[in-house]
């Protein structure tokens, strides 16, 4: 997941449902019963606001976490405050000089437009279903279903997201449930049936089994 984590100084929020989810998963799933105790009190964390989180996800696409952080640091200081309206005022040349490709500049401008013109129902997201939010987000250039699902997990902290397009999830299911054998989406979905209604939490622990260091977006 090549999205740079935010600065440690940001306010960090953790999910209210985490303890309950862990108890449920350990009761229902033999792998979770083994995995969850290995990571102590560590849990999913979210930082920043929606626009910043999505801007980071766009900048981080197809580049390493380190490269993404470098570009982000250069881009984030261009406006006095990182808001959609201020991003729309930036010069393309300045954004390119920060290390952004022409395509990513277009994506960031489209993202800022969607926030600035009210095309996204940000204030309603808390009461909207996951698929409704995904439908809104994928209307933005440069944001596909995987990015939208990462946003649901890491920003909105939705408890039951199963990102079947995530390579880490599929690899982790293969290693933890199938002794490394190739796993299909249907195999993964079958395994995850025992995780509901906490697929996001189980996915987080599957990621930790591959990389013990938690990532916050």
Automatic annotation (TrEMBL):
Alphabetized InterPro entries for the sequence: Alkylbase_DNA_Glycosylase/TA, DNA_glycosylase, HhH-GPD_domain
The reaction(s) this protein catalyses: Hydrolysis of alkylated DNA, releasing 3-methyladenine, 3-methylguanine, 7-methylguanine and 7-methyladenine
CDD domains to which the protein is assigned, alphabetical: ENDO3c (cd00056)
EC number: 3.2.2.21
TM helices/strands, residue ranges: none
Alphabetic keyword roster: DNA damage, DNA repair
Domain HhH-GPD: 59-211
Protein name (Swiss-Prot/TrEMBL): DNA-3-methyladenine glycosylase II
């Amino acid at each position: 997941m090549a999205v740079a984590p935010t600065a440690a100084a940001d306010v960090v929020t953790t999910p209210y449902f985490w303890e309950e989810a862990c108890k449920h998963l350990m009761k229902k799933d033999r792998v979770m019963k083994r995995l969850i105790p290995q990571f102590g009190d560590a849990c999913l964390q979210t930082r920043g606001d929606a626009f910043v989180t999505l801007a980071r996800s766009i900048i981080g696409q197809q580049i390493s976490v380190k490269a993404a952080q470098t570009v982000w640091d250069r881009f984030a200081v261009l406006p006095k405050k990182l808001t959609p309206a201020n991003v729309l005022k930036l010069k393309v040349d300045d954004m390119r000089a920060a290390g952004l490709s022409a395509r990513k500049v277009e994506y960031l401008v489209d993202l800022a437009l969607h926030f600035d013109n009210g095309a996204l129902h940000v204030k309603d997201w808390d009461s909207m279903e996951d698929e409704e939010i995904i439908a809104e987000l994928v209307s933005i250039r440069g944001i596909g279903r995987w990015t939208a699902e990462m946003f649901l997990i890491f920003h909105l902290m939705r408890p039951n997201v199963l990102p079947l397009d995530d390579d880490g999830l599929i690899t982790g299911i293969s290693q933890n449930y199938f002794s490394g054998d190739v796993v299909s989406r249907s195999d993964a979905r079958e395994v995850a049936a025992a995780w509901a209604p906490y697929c996001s939490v189980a996915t987080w622990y599957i990621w930790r089994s591959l990389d013990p260091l938690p990532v916050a977006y």
